[in-house]
Fold:
Amino acid sequence: MVDTLEHDILIVGGGGAGLRAAIAAAEESPDIDIAMVSKVYPMRSHTVSAEGGAAAVIKSNDSLEDHFRDTISGSDWLADQDVVEAFVREAPDEMVQIERWGCPWSRESDGSVAVRPFGGMSIERTWFAADKTGFHMLHTLFQTSLKYTAIKRYDEWFVTRLLVENGRCQGVVAIELLSGQVRAIRARAVIVCTGGGGRIFQFTTNAAIKTGDGMGMAYMAGVPLKDMEFVQYHPTGLPGTGILITEAARGEGGVLLNNKGERYLQAHDLGEALDVNDERHPQLRAMELGPRDRLSQAFMKEEQKGNVFRDSEGSYVHLDVQHLGEKKIEAKIPFVRELAKNYGGVDPVYEPIKVRPVVHYMMGGIDTDIDAATKLPGLYAAGECACVSLNGANRLGSNSLTELLVFGARAGRNASIWAREHPEFDSAALEQQASAEQERIADQYINNHDGKERIATLRTELQETMEQGCGIYRDEVSMKATTEKLAEIKARFRSGIQLDDHSLSFNTELTSALELEFMIEIAEAVAHSALERKESRGSHQRTDYVERDDEAYLKHSLAVHSEGGPQINYRDVAITKWPPEARVYGRDH
Amino acid sequence: MTTAATMPETIMIDVARYHPEHDEEPQYERFEVPYRSDWVVLDALNHIKDQDDGSLTYRWSCRMGVCGSCGMMVNGVPVLTCAAFLRDYLPGPVRVEPLAGFPVERDLVVDLKDFIGKLSAVKPWIIREEETPLSEGEYKQSPGQLADFKQFSMCINCMLCYSACPVYQHEEEFVGPAALALAQRYNADSRDEGNAERYPLIWSDDGIWDCTFVGECSEVCPKHVDPAGAIQSAKLESTVGWYTSFLPLGRKRD
Amino acid sequence: MLRELSAVFMAVYVVLMVIMVSRIYEGQDAYEDYRDFLKSPFVIVFHLIALAFALLHSITWFQAVPRAIRIRRGEEFVPPQALIGTHILAWFGISVVIIGIFLI
Structure:
């Protein structure tokens, strides 16, 4: 018998999107009862690590049309244009709203919010709080959420599956970590805001918690994962640890240099290098302010040519911000300095920072529509775990923090309306499902003493094969090898995991096993979607199909879960007003 | 300075273990882990969990000093284990224990409920008498006004300050450094009008006046928030507020 | 921690002061006896130590001033050294005045 709790709306995940959804739901219906279930305390969520900023049109010299066009060309035309239009339209109000809630935005001398240039943006439109924007946004949202008594939090509860009955999502099953007890939580609407799954790769900026749980559980409940082949490599991570050095370092004027001391991006069709003291530097939509996919690809080409540095931690190039001077570095990018000193062993005021591309963000995710709804009634998703098709084949830096506000709020409002209109539960069936899930966890893990496979071994093998097959440049042979390896890992996982910990209280080895289960599922979705897309677009670059093929692939991939592995279907991209063109940076066309 | 020739191959880690289902008291367990000069204590714990004992229990996430999960006592001092390099603890052994001053849930995991309650109690959100429509744009705030509270907004809730605070160790009721600094963060924000709502708690006996200004909280704070300074500022405000309450136009005492 | 310890010496010093006042109240003889007691080497050493702690307490107190009083001019805060310096000067000035009053 599993204890059952009940709420109107249940939000899985306490990061930026989840908190925004919770507040939106509370404001939409004041008498509604909201639960937020998160495997970590909300302020630990990975939104906290975002550094550079959040984009929204606020200045009089900017326009919604320009933000729209930058986002579409950044996405290599794989974004849905109706979604992008809604996004750029709602972004300014959302940003003003979080300012009203106290987010400590950096300011101009007249007291208005300051904006900085960012990669792929044609004008300065990125709001920032020095270089800890995500940290400040997350804490502002969390602290603001504390004033809503309608929001009940279940901190450090791990959701293991969605409860689906009668064609509707009606809650979740979760483990209360402290006691180890399995509970059912019924809810009239469920919003998944669990972030991405960058941890399926070996070398990533992503925190340990980013294991794609929400993507995995929606996928296994029959919701497709959309555009999973598109994985963003951020061009500037610290070698070894993968810690992120924000794009703001380049937005403020930092430059990338290869081992010959050259501004190598100019050799990769990203424009011409201007002197760092030139007034026009940094140029918008060019060179260091090109989009992330193109910069990461340029690194790989330089590596092939032998133009990169090498040491015990592998290959790297230099990110040089010395010319900004100590005062500007301290004012605009103090966290870059702190991270470079602590984890990169250099003080960027006096030395260049060693950087290399690193897995950063998943453009793909749970297939949602413009209302943040999935095809499973009662189930919504927002933030990195969702794919509303704002980012297409390559996300522009500083669009994702705004995305979690815009679509988090939409999810909260729409879920609230749905919950009001669908009060009834299929209680008996839900209870049965919860009991079955409790038994599964007990049999598969807690009471299973025969498992042979160690979590860390399988996880490392998974991360290695993803890096090999689904990296910046891909081809049929390596991707096939990866899909086969993943099938092998899945089979070994199912043959039994060897746990050292069979107790109930705060069993983090159990949660690691459950996370690995989700990781394997979404890794398969990534690899199979990538294998099937026989073109190069945005972050998905194939050495065997080097051109973009709008004829065949101006389409979203949809990975559907099945016992034999993912089935890949396609859906047309929504083009409202700007048909595909050549994607050009650093020059006119 | 340790040169490559004298660099050890391994280092000993003594970890406090406690399991609520069968332990009365914490016990120490020694693990030998590979020594790498770029490893932090958290890397050593991850190595132990992955290779030696999967039941070792601790919190961690971002491993870049911003999520605030991985605070522990290392050789008796509260630190973020993701920022505590093994090279600074040579030749070892390194003693790792849960944050002092909190009930232990298991091994290195402590109970945060008391802190979370106190965080909510100081009303850490913008309070205004009136809201203007969003269409009127952002509230204006000069860079100087931002500087008035910016430092106090940098807290990552890692709890090291509570662990270092001698008052909190003896008086559980004390609101404590991080929560009081957060109250000061909102009180000093030019957009906020809620000071009067926060004063009853922070000026109470469990609030700022419990602090004896030992200053350990600011010593251990990894983000230079200076909670001790925040509390001192608040004491000054409180004192001025008390005296001016006797003036004809002064604030009402309650 | 020395700063916390200084409070103990301050407290003992105050007790000695209070005793002195009560001796004065008791009359000339009692006061003279007490003065003899104060002249003993042990008590003198105590007062020297107490003076050292008083100075330590005062100086660390003034060093803490910038953390309690944050004065901003435009975008910059008044530098801590300036605040500390002003307070120490004022302390010195007031001390001179008080000593002056007693000497006159």
Q: What stands out?
A: The beta strands of chain B are 10-17, 27-34, 71-74, 77-80, 94-97, 104-106, 109-110. The first strand of chain B starts at residue 10 and ends at 17. The first helix of chain B runs from residue 41 to 52. Chain B has a mean pLDDT of 93.
